Amino acid sequence: MSHMGAWAHIREDRTLYREGWLAQGLWALAIHRLSAGRFARRRGVVRSLWGVAAKLAGKWAEFACGISLPETATIGRRLRIEHFGGIVVHGSTVIGDDCVLRQNVTLGNRSEARPLEAPILGNRVQIGAGAVVLGAVRIGDGAIIGANAVVLSDVPAGAIAVGNPARIIERASV
Fold this sequence. Notes:
Elements: H1 6-14, H2 24-36, H3 45-65, E1 67-68, E2 74-75, E3 80-81, E4 87-89, E5 94-95, E6 100-101, E7 106-108, E8 120-121, E9 126-127, E10 132-134, E11 138-139, E12 144-145, E13 150-151, E14 159-162, E15 167-171
Parallel strand pairs: 1-4, 2-5, 3-6, 4-7, 5-8, 6-9, 7-10, 8-11, 9-12, 10-13, 12-14
Antiparallel strand pairs: 14-15
Helix pairs in contact: 1-2, 2-3
């Protein structure tokens, strides 16, 4: 995340959502941004209380929005969650700037034996509805993951990945 504060990020994120403050994706992202800010504080009572509030708010976002966006995930600027519902992001996931997630997307680990391995998305990555990206895979800048694709290996920058298991069908210019 850049050096911008949480509120500056939220204001910037809001410009991407046609529904404005009514967009449930924005609610979940705002909760993430405010919750992740606690890691900048040294350990203590304030950080602990902030942590409890963050966990409760995160659970509310899961229930009300259908979006699990843990505070430990690293999220770049201007993430757009196009349609709410069924979105699960692993706590070790890294999402670059200007990315788009659509409904029913899973960004997760692949094995209980390696619980911290999670996807790394570059900048300007688009993930289609129902797509699943599992394990320590890297999705290059400008890549597009098609709807319902199951990605288990790296996708190069500018590529389009579709199918189960995902395969590269075309290379777009970045």
